[in-house]
Amino acid sequence: MVKIADIELGEFPLLLAPMEDVSDPPFRYVCKQAGADLMYTEFISSEGLIRDAIKSRQKLDIFDYERPIGIQIFGGDEEAMALSAKIVDATGPDLLDINYGCPVSKVVCKGAGAGVLKDVDLMVRLTDAVVKSTNLPVTVKTRLGWDENSKNIMEVAERLQDVGIKALTIHGRTRAQMYKGEADWTLIAAVKNNPRIHIPIFGNGDIDNPEKALEYKNRYGVDGVMMGRAAIGYPWIFREVKHFLKTGQHLPPPTFEERLLVCRTHFEKSVAWKGDKVGVFEMRRHYAQYFRGLPDFKPWRTQLVNAGTPDEVYDLLDALNENYANVTIL
Question: What is the three-class DSSP state of 262?
Fold first, then answer.
């Protein structure tokens, strides 16, 4: 049984990665229904929380059906991180996660996210400040290092464990790699096999099918895997991986009817949580993935992306249902 502090996650938990503008409550809902064991909010700026920025505050929204759920914060200032940890504590998640992995320039240039990888001493101070400011279990998500010449993940893992983190998720790329090339899991395995390390180690990067999940589980010995991009428009990845790990057999892929139903549910949740205008707009990035492999879908996608109201989207989804009933997705 893998545990983060007292949170039981099963024998080999599957985690949903926190993704900016993706891992909102509507998306997390469909992933939870499909079997995600632990999920995180989109990352939240510690400075934004302290300023009471509306977008940052909205990202604190969590729901009981999501549990266990972690709220993820980022920042480069000890005082701001400590204060934001207290704010997070008051909202009642199951854990608090610190992002030291986001490679996006607008985050890195503020000395946050993966930018902290260049200064391990600062990373330790920031983490220590958060641990001391919350009653929640604190976890961290990070990368192997800043670039090929500074893969310092072993030092990072040991020092962050020493200041009290309860689990570590490692993305198998450096910041310099962004999301390019192949993730290197050998260093993730080295951290897991380090006799000094006793907290759960989760691997992240390139897991996009059940075979790879099983292969990486067996080859690298991690306590669980985190999946992100593979779940966008395809939350069924969680149930498919679980079934394959348990039985060695593949589940049949979701039918068109199931894809349509889950897409509609996702859309309903999006509009209910964000309002009509934003809910319609932010759902646009998901349609191509939900209906990937559907013959001649491009004109439908164009109409869905151009739809401006919930009623227009619902009408298009109904029309899709009429046009593609009993069609097999390739």
Answer: helix
Q: E strands of the chain, at which residues? A: 3-4, 7-8, 14-16, 38-40, 44-45, 69-74, 95-100, 138-143, 167-171, 201-204, 224-227
Residues serving a catalytic function are 102
pLDDT digits (tens, 9 = 90+) for 216-255: 999 999 999 999 999 999 999 999 999 999 999 999 999 9
> Strand ranges (DSSP E) for 103-197?
138-143, 167-171
Q: Which domains does the chain have, with CATH numbers?
A: 3-247 (3.20.20.70), 256-324 (1.10.1200)
Quote the CA–CA distance of 306 and 5 in Å, as a whole number.
46
Contact present, 126 and 78 (Cβ < 8 Å): yes
Q: How confident is the model at residue 280 (pLDDT cuts 50, 70, 90)?
A: very high
Is the whole model's pTM more than 0.90, yes or no?
A: yes
Q: What is the DSSP letter of 208?
A: -
Residue where the block lists tokens 């759920």: 69
Give residue 283's pLDDT band: very low, low, confident or very high (50, 70, 90).
very high
Tell me which amino acid residue 295 is. Answer: P
69-74/95-100 β-pairing: parallel
Alpha-carbon distance of 267 to 297, in angstroms, equals 18
- Rounded Cα distance between 118 and 116, Å, is 5
Residue type, 101: G
> Residues 280, 306: contact at Cβ < 8 Å?
no
Is the pLDDT reported for residue 175 higher than 80?
Answer: no
Residue 254 carries which DSSP code? P
Residues in CB range of 54: below 8 A, 6 or more apart: none
Q: Could you report the per-residue pLDDT of 64-90, keeping only the tens digit for each?
A: 999 999 999 989 889 999 999 999 999
How many angstroms separate the Cα of 16 from the Cα of each of 19, 70, 161? 9, 10, 22
Q: Among candidates 280, 279, 293, 180, which has minimal Cα distance to 234?
A: 293
Query: Of 217, 233, 109, 98, nearest to 168 (Cα)?
Result: 98
Segment 124-138 shows an average pLDDT of: 97
Look at the chain and count its residues: 330
